[in-house]
Specification:
This protein has 131 residues and is mostly helical. Strand 2 and strand 3 form a beta hairpin. The chain is globular and about 60 Å long.
Amino acid sequence: MAAEKPATSRLPEGAGDAFREDCPGRTVLDHVTSRWGVLILASLRERPLRFYEVRDRVGGISEKMLSQNLRILGRDGLVAREVEPALPPKVSYSLTPLGQELAHPLQSLIDWISACTPAIVEAQRAHDTAS
């Protein structure tokens, strides 16, 4: 009798290839690389934060969008929600080990964007002037 295959092998062939239209990783890619996903994950990189701390760190995000994105990132296994019994309950958010692994390359992306923004803005101006 053949050994049972691991659960991950039950995914469709090519499931880990984000270039394929039917890859489930595309949904995760959308969540992680959304405007808010990147910033929320990066904000939690150093330590757990309370809801209002994440909101204040990620300028311009509404409470509704923050709540929605934290829920999605939690479902993806990237963010953990911890409720401390108190009155009122204290809720904090942190990165899971999977989220921590992802936060490092995301921070590199943010650092690259920060460093290159002046050159990108100049390229945009040059393009718009030429158009």
